[in-house]
Specification:
Rossmann fold, 637 residues, ANL_N_sf, Luciferase, domain 3, globular, AMP-dep_synth/lig_dom, GMP Synthetase, Chain A, domain 3
Length: 637
């Protein structure tokens, strides 16, 4: 890895790699083209970025101008980003799943001048709102046949295919080479690199202002804490680059180290792509890991008999090995022999489905259920759990490779201070840094607050909102509740998420929901109970499990009724809820529930793009059904 200093900027990262680590002819990006993945070199990437920089400068784009992305992960994203970063422009990536009104708000709020558009569907979205966006000058479809869409719309905006922009940029490059070099040298660490709009569980999205210093310092600190990432590694990228987690943990890390990035085609084809690419590292979200766990357990045990016994035996062996290693004890010869057999008979077959080369996966975006972390630990695939927010670029803590406490998000990264603040008295309970780490340290619970290189400049155009989250002493208030457990940070819940029942008991819904999500019959669950006598829930059943148990066809799932009132299904879900309730305190147990036919989704406005439930939206939308849950007598425990 090339040397990173406090003055390093995003456009310098990739050039450092080419000068010091990899030759221009070696592979940087991999994109599926037909039946195979096509390699794209570091040299091609930089050449395309330079061509785009020339085009931007020719069209009057200046340092500080905001340029938009509405596109899935692909090499074009990288070229476009590298091209604008090196002239000091600002990346504004928009989630493709957002509604037209949300996209319009961001375009106007950020004052976008150009926008790169990924497919026909997204171009239609933009054309419906483009005339309302005065600053928007250029629409740049990433595909050549955009006329099929634009012919049905009247637009005053200039529309050019990405390929046309690239070719024009190449023809202009000779005239702009010196200007590009000068512009790159003028980019300062404190300059804005990106505006990333928060997903907004409540209220209007806010643009977090992240600088080159924020991103580069975050990558540097993470690589110090996880030194096992090397230039030979291959990352498989499928989480959206419009989200800060994938941007930093995959894209910026690879630009720094010189590792390769392969782009997955879609979530549906992820399993196939893993077999093709054979990645060594992936950034993932807990829901993907939950699904892998469910499928592996089902595949290993559904047949019953000897196969099931071998599967369960192997995971008991894996559990014993994991626990000994976590305790720092020797595995010993007899257990080592069993572990070798378990690997051969069971674990190797599961690992083959991930491509067989995974060193570890980095999980972020939400809390990883403890049972899922334990499953992968028993299997022998390391899951490094990280924690942070859009406003912290994003990483504040991440698991160390050699020291893991499942259920926590790891050690504080170098260069920042994380404190726990009492939510009532506002007294700071403890301050912890990377250097103060003590594997025996425990703290009380409170709001997690942070200072240091990761903290954003503020919210774009929203000084009052900025003052609300960054106090006079410079602490950024995350809104998350947590504590220190064995020296590692542990997230309890969101402050806004906490339910306080009518008896004054605090209930952390994420922890309770994760217990019930152990059931293979439950796909999603939303807990209700603030200012109420007891907890209820909206439950979304697993469609796969419903099909298997009741032989339903697709028509059943497409029925217009929002809720399922079949007593057989209610009793079927209730079986698992009763069983899992034994793991909870009495006041944390669900006393009544309704079954929602269709999953909560981003498109329906019920989930944020990072798949967090919009509590206010859901409670308002289903207020009548929720009230009915409390109009009936419930069974006592």
């Amino acid at each position: 890895m090339a040397q990173i200093t406090e003055r390093t900027t995003i456009p310098q990262l990739l050039r450092n790699v080419v000068q010091n680590v990899k030759s221009p002819q070696t592979t940087f990006l991999l994109e599926k083209n037909g039946d195979d993945y096509k390699p794209i070199t570091f040299g091609e990437t930089l050449a395309n970025a330079d061509a785009l920089s020339a085009w931007f400068l020719d069209k009057g784009i200046q340092k500080g101008d905001r340029l938009g992305f509405l596109i899935e992960n692909c090499p074009k994203y990288v070229y476009y980003d590298q091209g604008l970063q090196q002239i000091g422009a600002v990346n504004v990536s928009i989630y493709p799943t957002l509604s037209e009104s949300e996209i319009e708000f961001i375009i106007k709020d950020a004052g976008l001048k150009t926008i790169l558009i990924g497919n026909h569907f997204l171009l239609r979205k933009i054309l419906k709102i483009a005339e309302n966006c005065n600053t928007l000058e250029y629409l740049i479809p990433a595909f050549d046949d955009y006329h099929k869409i634009t012919s049905h719309f009247t637009s005053t905006k200039k529309i050019l295919a990405f390929s046309e922009v690239l070719e024009e940029g190449k023809s202009l490059l000779a005239n702009y080479t010196t200007k590009i070099f000068q512009a790159r040298e003028m980019v300062q660490p404190e300059d804005l690199s990106s505006l990333i709009y928060t997903s907004g569980t409540t209220g209007t999205p806010k643009g977090a202002m992240l600088t080159h210093y924020n991103f580069v310092s975050n990558v540097k600190a993470c690589l110090e804490q996880i030194p096992g990432i090397v230039p030979e590694d291959v990352f498989l990228s499928f989480l959206p680059l419009s989200h800060v987690f994938e941007r930093t943990a995959t894209y910026h890390v690879c630009c720094t180290v010189g590792s390769s990035i392969a782009f997955a085609q879609s979530l549906e084809l992820l399993g196939k792509n893993m077999m093709e690419v054979k990645p060594t590292i992936m950034s993932v979200v807990p829901r993907l890991l939950e699904r892998i766990t469910e499928k592996a357990v089902k595949s290993g045990t559904s047949a019953g008999g000897f196969k099931s016994k071998i599967f369960l035996w192997a995971f008991e062996v894996g559990k014993e090995v994991r626990q000994k290693r976590e305790a720092g004890s020797s595995v010993g010869f007899p257990l080592s022999v069993k572990a070798t057999l378990a690997e051969k008979l069971v674990f190797s077959k599961i690992k083959e489905k991930t491509g067989g080369n995974l060193k570890f996966m980095i999980s972020g975006g939400a809390a990883l259920p403890k049972n899922v972390g334990e499953f992968f630990g028993n299997l022998g695939i390391k899951i490094l759990e990280g924690y942070g927010l859009t406003e912290t670029a994003p990483v504040m803590a991440v698991t160390e490779f050699h020291r893991q406490v499942i259920g926590t998000v790891g050690r504080i990264i170098p260069g920042i201070v994380v404190a726990i603040q009492n939510t009532d008295t506002k007294e700071i309970v403890t301050k912890q840094t990377h250097e103060s780490f003590d594997p025996n340290f425990e703290s009380a619970e409170g709001e997690i607050i942070v200072k240091g290189h990761c903290v954003m400049k503020g919210y774009w155009n929203q000084p009052e909102e900025t003052k609300f989250v960054i106090d006079n002493e410079g602490w950024f208030h995350t809104g998350d509740v947590g504590k220190f457990n064995k020296g590692n940070l542990q997230i309890t819940d969101r402050i806004k998420n906490i339910l306080i029942n009518s008896y004054g008991k605090n209930i952390y819904p994420t922890q309770v929901e994760n217990i019930y999500l152990k059931s293979t019959r439950i796909e999603q669950i939303f807990l209700i109970g603030d200012k109420r006598d007891y907890l209820t829930a909206i439950v979304v059943p697993s469609h796969d499990s419903l099909r298997e148990s009741f032989d339903f066809d697709e028509d059943f799932f497409n029925e217009p009724d929002q809720f399922i009132e079949d007593e057989r299904i209610t009793n079927w879900v209730k079986e698992d809820i009763r069983k899992l309730s034994n793991e909870l305190a009495k006041f944390e147990r669900i006393k009544n529930f309704i079954i929602k036919r269709h999953p909560f989704s981003i498109e329906s406005g019920e989930l944020t793009p990072t798949l967090k439930a919009k509590r206010r939206v859901i409670e308002k939308k289903y207020a009548e059904e929720i009230d009915e849950l409390y109009d009936v007598e419930v069974e006592a425990d």
